[in-house]
Amino acid sequence: VSFLFLSIVCLNDWLFILFFLERAPKPTLTVDPPSGPVTLGGNVTFTCTAPQHTPGMRFKLYKDDAVSSQITGPVHVPEAVFQITGITSQNDGRYHCVYDIPSSVSDRQRVSQTNSCPSPPTRSRVLGSG
Question: What are the residue boundaries of the Ig-like domain, all occurrences included (predicted)?
Fold first, then answer.
């Protein structure tokens, strides 16, 4: 999960548009049974826990970098439980989880290109004759 921030800066007649990307905190993944190999035909439960709850969160469980399972829809707690029943050799692999936080779309803002930065304000004086 990432958050994008935009900043527009004008420096020495150059216009810079800066993008900042901030990553959300990592979730934790626990497995039950907690250690060692699992018996063929046994069950495994993965619990993916996000640092905080946000309505509408979506969780995905990956096996060897491919989506193995996902939970979408109304998740009311900051965790999702994934179960694998009847373990076979096809379930061997490395697992990790990811959570997504849906966001609302903001109002649109217009950015127009200019050839240079705005000039600084100037002062004018009127000199009297005489």
Answer: 27-112
Sort residue 64 into left (φ over 0), alpha (ψ -120 to 50) or beta.
Answer: left
How does pLDDT run across 67-113, given as a tens digit for each residue?
877 766 556 778 889 999 999 988 888 899 988 877 655 666 666 65
Q: Cβ atoms within 10 A of the Cβ of 31, count?
A: 14
Residue 24: count other Cβ atoms within 10 Å of its Cβ.
Answer: 15
CA distances from 92 to 53, 65, 68, 96 (A): 30, 13, 12, 13
| pTM beyond 0.85 | no
